[in-house]
Amino acid sequence: MFIGRATSQDFGVSIVGSVRETASARRVRLGPLAAATALNFLWQVPYAVHQYGVAWLRLSVWSLGLVLAGVWFAVAARRYRAGRPGGRGMLVIFLAVEAAFYLLHNLTGAFAADLPLSNPIVLIASALGYATALLAVAYLWLLRSPEDDPKRGYGGGRAAR
Predict the structure, then answer these.
(1) What is the reported pTM?
(2) What are the angstrom distances between the C-alpha of 150 and each of 17, 30, 89?
(3) Count of CB atoms within 10 A of residue 30's CB?
(4) Using CA atoms, how far apart are residues 40 and 17, in angstroms rounded to an integer?
(5) Residue whose C-alpha is closest to residue 94's, from 28, 60, 140, 157
(6) Count of C-beta atoms within a 10 Å radius of residue 100
(7) Residue 30: is its pLDDT beyond 60?
């Protein structure tokens, strides 16, 4: 008769490994989001130079904000992909802020007005902005399930210890 608490090691089974494998199979793939976000951030450089010229150098606060947002996304995406606690939350908050930014941008009267066919640099910047805004909303919907959160036991949280 067995008295006490059995662990996965008692039976030669790695429950932690199987939970992590299952969680990574359920994890939402971030490739399209990462590609669009990186392209959007990178395109801000030619856009800013085109729009503001040398005066762009005086916009260093905005540039710093853009760099910090890029770092935020990179850290959140990496933590999420690795199944680390807080990754999903960081990513969801980033996406919510991005969607809110573009919603505010469009509510101020920029909707469709920022798509000038005669100016390809602004047109591309705006198209990338619309694409990342739509992707942010789509990924918020895809990431809505708390089952994917490592803090709830998938991918390294409490249950996997």
Answers:
(1) 0.69
(2) 14, 17, 10
(3) 19
(4) 36
(5) 140
(6) 12
(7) yes
